[in-house]
Amino acid sequence: MEVRDSRQDASTTAKPVDINDPYIQNLGKWAVAQHVKQANDGIKFNKVNHAEVKPQATNIYIVHTSHVAKPPHFADLEQWYRSMVAPNTSSGRILYTYDTVMHGFAVQLIGDEAQRMSSSAGVTGVYEGRVTHTHTTRSPGFLGLDPGFGAWKDADFGDGVIIGFVDTGIWPESSSFDDSGLGPVRPSWRGGCVNAEDFNASLCNNKLVGARAFNSARQATASSKSSGGVASPRDTDGHGTHVASTAARSEVRGAGVAMFARGTARGVAPKARIAMYKVPDGSPPVADIVAAVDAAVKDGVDIISISLGYDPCPFHNDALAIDGA
């Protein structure tokens, strides 16, 4: 039996391809058409995929850290905090850094980033930045205070005390904040007033000794720039002015509602000084509130009034449960 190499037969018997053959030309056109169709299908497929991928919702979180755990190769705490957030996005997503009443930062996180960040070295807690609602206050009558004797008179009606209000701002032109009879604020006071939209620092006096605004968290979550509010201490809600005057209104004679109930109005501590740390109207985010508290303590207030709140939650999960505030 003779064994022959079929490859040799094929090479010797095969005919060269004639590129002018109509069949070959039609086959080539079909192959090109299929290639173009597949490419177009791929583009359409990719477009559908991209259209179906929706941007993940971001939430604001407050991250508590142990500042002594900062690795030595970071120049400062802010650089360390930025390293915990996705590269090239940290500068716009970190809204505040806190370094007085607590150490940490407020940041916008996506998806499961909060859970992953909670396990980062040096992080002691990650808390969702809830929104709050305005509350009301009590009156001197409820406390049984009498201007003629007792604790009220003995404390000289709060003279020299600086109360920091974390609230919806203040209307400085009100006669409730007149500084007649008050001396200059103590030299150790580190706060002050800012020039902002519809608010001039010159409106402050020896009664209103501080006025600032914090709204970065509200701006970050606002659907539009206008809905984020204006970073101005000016009160457009009325709550902050009401609370500040209830606590520390200067004596106002002839006060009343329209022509009724005329009398002398005064705050619980009519000689106390007021520093307003405005947070957004309506439902201010906790991240803005913590920034305001941090600034108030740094400025040197004696008392902080936060007439804001939300539904109760465990203290260890409450970003407003701040030691020393």
TrEMBL record:
<dbReference type="InterPro" id="IPR045051">
    <property type="entry name" value="SBT"/>
</dbReference>
<dbReference type="GO" id="GO:0006508">
    <property type="term" value="P:proteolysis"/>
</dbReference>
<comment type="similarity">
    <text>Belongs to the peptidase S8 family.</text>
</comment>
<dbReference type="InterPro" id="IPR015500">
    <property type="entry name" value="Peptidase_S8_subtilisin-rel"/>
</dbReference>
<dbReference type="InterPro" id="IPR037045">
    <property type="entry name" value="S8pro/Inhibitor_I9_sf"/>
</dbReference>
<dbReference type="Pfam" id="PF00082">
    <property type="entry name" value="Peptidase_S8"/>
</dbReference>
<dbReference type="GO" id="GO:0004252">
    <property type="term" value="F:serine-type endopeptidase activity"/>
</dbReference>
<feature type="domain" description="Inhibitor I9">
    <location>
        <begin position="61"/>
        <end position="135"/>
    </location>
</feature>
<dbReference type="InterPro" id="IPR010259">
    <property type="entry name" value="S8pro/Inhibitor_I9"/>
</dbReference>
<feature type="compositionally biased region" description="Polar residues">
    <location>
        <begin position="220"/>
        <end position="229"/>
    </location>
</feature>
<protein>
    <submittedName>
        <fullName>Uncharacterized protein</fullName>
    </submittedName>
</protein>
<keyword id="KW-0378">Hydrolase</keyword>
<feature type="domain" description="Peptidase S8/S53">
    <location>
        <begin position="158"/>
        <end position="310"/>
    </location>
</feature>
<keyword id="KW-0645">Protease</keyword>
<keyword id="KW-0720">Serine protease</keyword>
<feature type="region of interest" description="Disordered">
    <location>
        <begin position="220"/>
        <end position="247"/>
    </location>
</feature>
<dbReference type="Pfam" id="PF05922">
    <property type="entry name" value="Inhibitor_I9"/>
</dbReference>
<dbReference type="InterPro" id="IPR036852">
    <property type="entry name" value="Peptidase_S8/S53_dom_sf"/>
</dbReference>
<dbReference type="InterPro" id="IPR000209">
    <property type="entry name" value="Peptidase_S8/S53_dom"/>
</dbReference>
<dbReference type="InterPro" id="IPR046350">
    <property type="entry name" value="Cystatin_sf"/>
</dbReference>
<keyword id="KW-0732">Signal</keyword>
